[in-house]
Amino acid sequence: MTLVEQADSSQVEDTATRARDSFHAHFGCPPRWVATAPGRVNLIGEFTDYNDGFVLPIAIERRTAIAAAPNHSHTIVLRSEATGETAIIDSSQPLSPDAQGRWTNYPKGVLAGFLDSGLKPCGLDALICSSVPIGAGLSSSAALEAAMATLLEAASGFKLDPVYKALLCQKAEHAYAGVPCGIMDPFISILARIGQALLLDCRSREPTWLPFADPSVAVLIIDTNVRHKLSGSAYAARRRSCETAAQALGVASLREATIEMLEQGSTSMDDMSVRCARHVIGENDRTLGAAECIRQSNWVEFGRLLDESHASLKHDFAVSCVELDAAVEIAQRIGPEGGVFGCRMTGGGFGGCAVALIETAAQQGIVRDIRANYLDRTGIGATLFLSRPAGGASLVKL
């Protein structure tokens, strides 16, 4: 057994196969469809998506799979392997969100989007399983939504435009899960390409695909295995601060703001709004710079931008935590000389994951060092795995 939990194409098949076999065991018949969708790691561009800025994610090789078969009724029966719960949704009745925090809100919100679009899928028995860590900042929610949307396309016999499909999933998260997320997560989960990173302009929704398959470097994901409950409320609070800053600066979004504008207008803003604006303005520049680094295979500069991003997220946006800082500091201390080009927190913060760009040849020593030192500093065991850029949501033939 290696020190790194290496994700690859076999894990895609494993998740789909597990869903198929679990479906058969639970419902007593084979599924007609298995839909899968990936989680994602955002390399850089944090909290810029809902500010009409730039993001640079890749899909990871860990996926959510939903196996399903028609049940000749108006109901959708959803079985969660993770929770052991079964939910029944009657698509012939008006839909409304379940209690806040319930996993059922994600697939229910997607179903509501289909029904609102005039698309009525057949009744389904379905079983959900996933290899995407939940609550780790790797977008397990978008993976579930994208897999559900892909399944409902098959069940309704109508294929959506991919961008419309991403917007439908985003709306589901807003209206049913109560999370005011940006477009990045559903977009990359649905449209991702194998071996490519996505530079996404979140204002125009214009994608720029960047080849990201240099075998000498790898993306290392460090799950701190810490989940602080502040993240949901803090996410909404930071978004409000960004909106306050944009209004004070007289721009439609912080995408249009500059550091010079912020310096001139900061006296009319509260401290948190100033700091949030400073992060977003700088992060947009860093994201565009990182995309250029990928084009030029300039991994040292790419790593420096990752380090700068974490400092900004920690000190200005204030969404890091002790455990994330520990993981990042340990990785950064190894440095380019030891094979770590750079590291930063990724996702909503207050726990979850850090992402590092590392030399592939040095991976075992890097993982050993990070794992041992993180355990020593925090008393918590981290989960580490590599991922190459994976493909987007799809139906799987088994």
Short description:
The chain is of the alpha+beta class and 398 residues long. Helix content is 44%, strand content 23%. The strands form two sheets. Strands 1, 2, 3, 4, 5, 6, 7 and 12 form an eight-stranded mixed sheet that branches. A four-stranded antiparallel sheet has the order 9-10-8-11.
Q: Care to describe what's here?
A:
By secondary structure, this protein is an alpha+beta fold. The chain folds into two domains: 9-41 and 58-192, Ribosomal Protein S5, domain 2 (2-Layer Sandwich); 217-387, 2-Layer Sandwich (Alpha-Beta Plaits), CATH 3.30.70. Helix content is 44%, strand content 23%. The strands form two sheets. Strands 1, 2, 3, 4, 5, 6, 7 and 12 form an eight-stranded mixed sheet that branches. A hairpin with a 5-residue loop joins strand 3 (75-80) and strand 4. The longest helix is centred in the C-terminal third of the chain and has 26 residues, at 271-296. The protein is globular and about 60 Å long. The chain starts with 8 loop residues before the first helix and ends with a strand. The model is unreliable at 1-8 (pLDDT under 50).
Relevant terms:
single chain; 398 residues; alpha+beta; Ribosomal Protein S5, domain 2; Alpha-Beta Plaits; 2 domains; eight-stranded mixed sheet; four-stranded antiparallel sheet; 23% strand; disordered N terminus
